[in-house]
Design brief:
- With 244 residues, the chain is an alpha/beta fold.
- The protein has one domain: Spore Coat Polysaccharide Biosynthesis Protein SpsA, Chain A (Alpha-Beta Complex).
- It contains 8 helices and 9 strands.
- The strands form 2 sheets. It has a 7-stranded mixed sheet, sandwiched between helices. It has a two-stranded parallel ribbon with strand order 6-9.
- Strand 1, helix 1 and strand 2 form a beta-alpha-beta unit.
- Helix 5 packs parallel to helix 8.
- The radius of gyration is 18 Å and the shape is globular.
- Bound molecules: guanosine-5'-triphosphate and magnesium ion.
- The site of guanosine-5'-triphosphate has 23 residues, from strand 1, strand 2 and helix 3.
- Magnesium ion binds next to loops.
- This is Glycosyltransferase 2-like domain-containing protein.
- Belongs to the glycosyltransferase 2 family.
- Pfam families: Glycos_transf_2.
């Protein structure tokens, strides 16, 4: 039952591929005042969907049509009906009890609330030294190229007002989705607030992320978005010149 006195509604989007064993833990952390939970199933071969539905009869299930976490989130966001959309993982690493911090940041004026493990109050039980180094380098590069002041680029716990979905214009398939969101949010001039978050270890099962392969996808995204920005600038200048 809803107990928080919000005037807006909150959807939680959970991408899940073979996470049946983790879902009882994940759903147990979700606040009672969430209006909608959408599980985006990546064609799981275990009981993910059945377990999820049994845990939450009000659950909405979206079966993704493509592949990858990016595709899953994009399709889940499109299906969400809430004023606010929160994205969390289904492996037990993101704690639903932190959702209130994200929603509060948005209610206080942020457009985009970005989780960070690397600011005071945040942390990780999960990230390896090599991934931590890679993330730090990619974060630094993004900050340099886009003038942002992010402390943690590649983290999957974020929330935003659904009205900004068009500005984010998401069009990627893989784990680079968080990077794309962070860059596009900044480029769209959204008010971004970082929210300290503590990442826990995956409870059961194996990670789908491959540090080198997915790190390179993130790097390509960072560089490609810079080219997109340059192309857009030239196009705008041409349009101005033609109009003058
Ligand atoms: N629907 C769907 N969900 C996915 C897909 N790939 C990953 N996920 C989910 O996305 C979330 C994050 O994936 P993980 O494999 O834990 O990767 P990660 O959290 O980035 O990496 P770790 O820190 O190693 O756990 C989990 O809930 C996965 O089940 C996919 O292709 N489709
Ligand atoms: Mg994980």
């Amino acid at each position: 039952m809803r107990s928080a006195p919000f005037t807006f509604s909150v959807s939680v989007v959970v991408p899940a591929m073979n996470e049946a064993e983790n879902l009882p833990h994940v759903f147990a952390t979700l606040p009672s005042w969430i209006d909608e939970v959408i599980l985006v199933d990546g064609n799981s071969t275990d009981d993910t969907v059945a377990v999820a539905k049994a845990l939450r009869p009000d659950l909405r299930v979206v079966t993704q049509t493509g592949r990858g976490k990016g595709n899953a989130l994009t399709e889940g966001f499109a299906a969400a009906t809430g004023d606010i959309i929160v994205m969390i993982d289904a492996d037990g690493s993101t704690d639903g009890r932190e959702i209130i911090s994200f929603v509060t940041a948005l209610a206080e004026g942020a457009d985009f609330a970005k989780g960070t493990r690397c600011a005071p109050g945040g942390g990780s039980d999960d990230i390896s030294p090599i991934r931590s180094l890679g993330n730090a380098m990619l974060t630094k590069l993004t900050n340099r190229l886009y003038g942002t002041r992010y402390t943690d680029l590649c983290y999957g716990y974020n929330a935003f007002w659904a009205r900004h979905l068009d500005a984010l214009n998401l069009d990627c398939d893989g784990f680079e989705i968080e990077t794309l969101m962070n860059i596009r949010a900044a480029q769209a001039g959204l008010v971004i607030r970082e929210v300290p978050s503590h990442e826990r270890s995956r409870i059961h099962g194996a990670s789908n992320l491959h540090a080198v392969r997915d790190g390179l996808r993130v790097l390509r995204t960072i560089l490609r978005e810079r080219d997109r920005r340059a192309t857009r600038r030239v196009k705008l200048q041409r349009e101005h010149a033609t109009a003058a």
